[in-house]
Structures are given as structure tokens and as C-alpha cells.
Amino acid sequence: MRTTLTEENYLKALFHLVDNEGKVTINELSKFLNVKMPSVNNMMKKFADKKWVVYETYKPLVITDNGKREAALVVRKHRLTEMFLVKKMNFGWENVHEIAEQLEHVHSQIFFDKMDEILDHPKFDPHGEPIPDKDGNIIAQDLQKLSACKVGETVIFASVTLSDDGFLSYLNDRKLLLNTRIRVVKIEDFDKSMTIEIGNSKEILSRKATEIILVKK
């Protein structure tokens, strides 16, 4: 039986919220989705019937292997769509999230397989996040927040934890794109804002921005 739009939104929320042990609380899901707790409880009981989660009253939910796969496949459709919009339709990376939110609910597997083929099977989306494969497997990345870097370190901009169009436009204005080499020049004691060097230019980033930017060495 096909998953509904609402089920897919819950699955995607689980994908983003579960901790390293595969656990998440009903309250966390409620806040993330802006849905009342009784509704979340009812949906998680349905998920438990489908063997996607282990549900016990007053305990955190535990996502099952089947649940992880179903959730990853929804995310796969979203991230493939974003990549297609950027690479084949020339959208800016700041303009693709809302469109992908709509197209991710298309159920045709052939549609997304063809999209994957046309893109030559990309491993990452335009925001640097890994695209799950057809079996729901996902590449593990060893990334850290830019805010964790020290003065003098040189790192590569690899991903963002927020694909909000306002934030991505903020990065565009500073010509800060994926795979850019960044050198940390200065960190202010007062507000932890950071001066970085990109090529021959310098930019000042807020603490909030450095918390969202993920880098690799």
C-alpha cells in the first residue's frame, strides 16, 4: 500500500530527528511538525502496526530498520529533486526546497530512477547532504560545525544544516559556496563572530551562521 503525504512527512521528520540510538520523543515530533500530541500518538500507533517504529506509552519511539529505509526513501526523492532543479533547470540552491517539498510525494519510482540516471547518480544534494540510494543506504560523513574550528585552521565548506532560502542567499552574497576553502582568521571573544578568508577576500560571519555551516578538513 502506498504511503500517504502525511505519512511521508512524518517519516521525513523521523529521519531528521532520531538520535544515534534511533530514538525520538513524541514531544519532539509534535514540535517539529507543529502537530498536536494526540495526533502524533495516533500516527505513531499506525507506524508501529507497519513495523516502522517501536511504540510504548511514555517512552521514546525507536525507529526500526524498515522505518529507517522508508524514511530515507522519502528523503532520497527530496534531495534528488533538489539536485535536478539545480543541475538541469538552473535553479539557485536557495530556490529548490519548496519545490522539492511538493515533488517528493510523487509515487512513481521510475520517475526518480530516471532523474537519478540523468544526473549520473549523484551522492550529494546541492546543499552537501548525502542522497540515500535506492535501498535507503546513506553515506556517512565526518563533518564538524565551522564554529568548532580554531583560528588558523583551513577547512572545506561541505554542507549546511539549514536550507532556508534566506540563509542560502546570505551565503550567496558572500560568495560562500560548497567546496570553498575557508581559513579562519579571527574569532571575536564578545559574540564569537568569525572572520574568514576565502581566496583573496575576507568575510565576517555571525555565530549563528558558523553553527549552520558544516566543514571537513
In short:
This is Transcriptional regulator MntR. With 217 residues, the chain is an alpha+beta fold.
Structural write-up:
This protein has 217 residues and is an alpha+beta fold. It is globular and about 55 Å long. It starts with a helix and ends with a strand. It has a 6-stranded antiparallel beta sheet with strand order 4-9-5-6-7-8. Strands 1-3-2 form a 3-stranded antiparallel beta sheet. The model has no long low-confidence stretch (mean pLDDT 96). It has helices spanning 5-17, 26-33, 37-49, 65-87, 97-103, 109-118, 165-173, 207-212, and strands at 23-24, 53-54, 61-63, 144-145, 154-160, 181-187, 194-198, 201-205, 213-216. Helix 2 packs across helix 3.
Q: Which descriptor suits the 3D outline?
A: globular
Question: Mean pLDDT, nearest integer?
Answer: 96
| Global structural class | alpha+beta
**Major beta-sheet overview:** 6 strands, antiparallel
Largest sheet, spatial ordering of strands: 4-9-5-6-7-8
- Tell me which oligomeric state these chains represent: single chain
Total count of helical runs of at least 4 residues: 8
Element order, helices and strands?
Answer: HEHHEEHHHEEHEEEHE
Number of strands: 9
**Between the first and last Cα atoms, what is the distance in angstroms?**
44 Å
Beta-strand residue fraction: 15-25%
Low-confidence stretches: none
> Using only CA atoms, what is the Rg?
19 Å
